[in-house]
Amino acid sequence: MASAQLAIFKVPDIDNEPMRSYGPGSAERKGLEEVLAQMERDSPFEVPCIVNGKPVKSGKIVKQPIPSDHARYLSYYHEADQKIVSDAVDGALAAKEEWETLPWNDRAAIFLKAAELASGKYRYKLMAATMLGQGKNAWQAEIDAAAELSDFFRFGVKFVEELYSQQPPKNSPGAWNRVEYRALEGFVLAVSPFNFTAIGGNLPGVPALVGNVVLWKPSPAATYSNYIVYQLLEEAGVPPGVIQFVPGPPAEVVAQAISHPLFAGLHFTGSTAIFKRLWKDIAQNLDIYRSYPRIVGETGGKNFHVVHSSANVENAVFQSIRSAFEYQGQKCSALSRLYVSSSVWNTGGFKDKLLEQIAGIKIGSHTKFDNFMGPVINKPAFDKILSYIEKAKAAGGKTLIGGTGDDSVGYFVQPTVILTKDPKSVTMVEEVFGPVLTVYVFEDSDYDSTLDLIDSTSQYALTGSIFASNRKVLVETTNRLRNAAGNVYYNEKCTGAVVGQQPFGGARGSGTNDKAGSINIFYRFVSTRSIKEGFVGLKEYGYPSNLV
Ligand SMILES: NC(=O)c1ccc[n+]([C@@H]2O[C@H](COP(=O)([O-])OP(=O)(O)OC[C@H]3O[C@@H](n4cnc5c(N)ncnc54)[C@H](O)[C@@H]3O)[C@@H](O)[C@H]2O)c1
Ligand SMILES: N[C@@H](CCC=O)C(=O)O
Taxonomically, which superkingdom (predicted)? Predict the structure, then answer.
């Protein structure tokens, strides 16, 4: 059926999803607890692949354990095999024309509805799946699976409206210039990480909003929450085939997808090592592609706080604890290297307050709301984090607090602070992705050279915070660290970017810095076409300069 759009519609005003508190006695705490309890009773859930809107079961089963209680599992999913991936690509390509040519307002309406479903009907279910499967507490699940996911969809619609309205500013007499923002020719592959349910939704959501069809390979450790995201997108009206949900053996599914001639783009979030490998593999395949694939990747971090002698100590301590230990340090933005001036650390009381506060942190499963920390995601992560603590100790680091873990029931690692005298020791340089904070104390008079250290210590450049009350220090530090972080904060922690408020992403080894949660990311998934229409016509081919 032909479609028509008989007006230029304006999308509704949007705002960030208001966060609920989950405080004692609140209706939202009660609502969430009920859904959590129900989900625990009903689990494990079977998760199929979804191809062309239909569930497909390969029979190759993989379990998704509950990290706080690894004897139990939340879901078991069917891994996509070669045929399923091949059918998913064919189905996506078949769905492409109708999706791309659907009037923009209808695509927008689908994603606005998806945001309402995420923040309403599915809110507690998404949160419960994120808490059980990915080990978040209620607040961390709220800011991710409820708020950020809805924000990505709502602001995404706003950004695309803005993008589509960008038109050439000039027309020569008797002509009209337009540009249209075509979807990429082929399909996009979205490969998402375990640590944010919202990122799971955003990686396929961004390309789909601008008319692309997408193969979405979720993280094995986030399968169930990501499956719920898929279901709500379907309920919102994303047509069959437009987003194909293909959990599976990561290397195989991805290798097959990027070997297809119509592979047109990668939307990846995850570790730097995997992203670099995929970039090289794509380069190897270059001759088989119809177009140059767009490669977008947001990856690891080694994020810093630098605390100047003029800083408010109490604020810097609390901000540091939140950013290093909330969600067990498993945010790409998490604080992991802390540079503190010696006057603040010693006489200023930073050290004592930090250790005293960390000693009071409660760790455990989602069942108790007073737990500030939960489990790390799985056994490899648990082992890797503890091995980093051992390496730091072997390199001369002193463990001030924590340093141990217990994986008898769940994968729990104590919040750990390591004091190092070597600013380039292993846990100052490499991404640990766990609750491990390494501290380097510098002489107040060495502030300037410490900035060189911060800038040159790791391959990453994702987030960083400057704590100072002196404006000149803030300005000079920002200038000196221009390329050391894609997101910089003054007197605020280096985690917690909000869609529509702080466009998020880093450069250097941290990614292509295409800024999730902003208009920038949408440019990467469109291929602009210029159209010029002449209204007058020519009466001869020569120019006046050809006349004699
Ligand atoms: N910069 C950001 O915005 C951002 C956001 C979230 C997470 N991260 C980063 O993500 C990492 C944590 O997430 P993770 O543990 O899920 O990352 P990961 O790299 O292990 O996995 C990311 C995705 O890649 C897939 N994958 C793994 N091995 C693969 C292979 N050989 N071939 C193809 N695909 C493969 C995984 O299944 C998953 O879907 C950290 O490094 C963190 O800093 C970055
Ligand atoms: N955008 C989130 C981090 C996402 C990565 O894990 C933050 O700013 O804390």
Answer: Eukaryota
516 C-alpha to ligand 2 centroid (Å):
10
Q: Which residues contact 19 (CB under 8 A, 6 or more apart)?
A: 142, 143, 146, 147
Question: Is residue 504 within 6 Å of ligand 2 at its C-beta?
Answer: yes
Three-state DSSP at 213 gives strand
Query: What letters, b where the CB count within 10 A reaches 16 and e where it falls short, cover 169-208?
Result: eeeeeeeeeeeebebbebbbbbbbbbbbbbbbbbbbbbbb
> Which residue of 331, 462, 498, 510 sits with most ligand 2 atoms within 8 Å of its CB, as the best mutation to test the pocket?
331
Tokens of 123: 């809110």
pLDDT of residue 153: 98
In short, whether 195's Cβ falls inside 6 Å of ligand 2 is yes
Predicted TM-score (pTM) of this structure: 0.98
What sections of 457-529 are H helices per DSSP? 471-480, 520-523
Q: Centre a 10 Å sphere on the Cβ of residue 292 and count the other Cβ atoms it contains.
A: 10
Find residue 181's DSSP bridge partners: 528
User: Which residue matches tokens 């799971």?
Assistant: 200
Residues 6 or more apart from 305 whose CB is under 8 A from it?
A: 316, 319, 320, 323, 335, 338, 339, 464, 465, 466, 467, 493, 494
Q: Whose CA is nearest to atom 16 of ligand 1?
A: 193
d(CA 271, ligand 1 centre) in Å: 4
CA separation for the pair 335, 343 (Å, rounded)? 21
For ligand 1, atom 27, the nearest C-alpha belongs to 250
Per-residue pLDDT tens digits for 82-136: 999 999 999 999 999 999 999 999 999 999 999 999 999 999 999 999 999 999 9
Ligand positioned closest to the Cα atom of 190:
1
| Averaged pLDDT in 10-residue chunks for the chain of 548 residues | 85 97 98 98 98 98 98 98 98 98 97 98 98 98 98 98 98 98 98 98 98 98 98 98 98 98 98 98 98 98 98 98 98 98 97 98 95 98 98 97 98 98 98 98 98 98 98 98 98 98 98 98 98 97 94
Ligand 1 contacts CB of residue 300 (under 6 A):
yes
- Angle 187-190-192 from CA coordinates, rounded to 5°: 175
**Cis? peptide before 247, omega within 30° of 0:** no
Cβ atoms of residues 64 and 74 within 8 Å: yes
Determine the Cα–Cα distance for residues 192 and 202; give it in Å rounded to an integer: 9
Give me the residue label for tokens 């704590």.
467
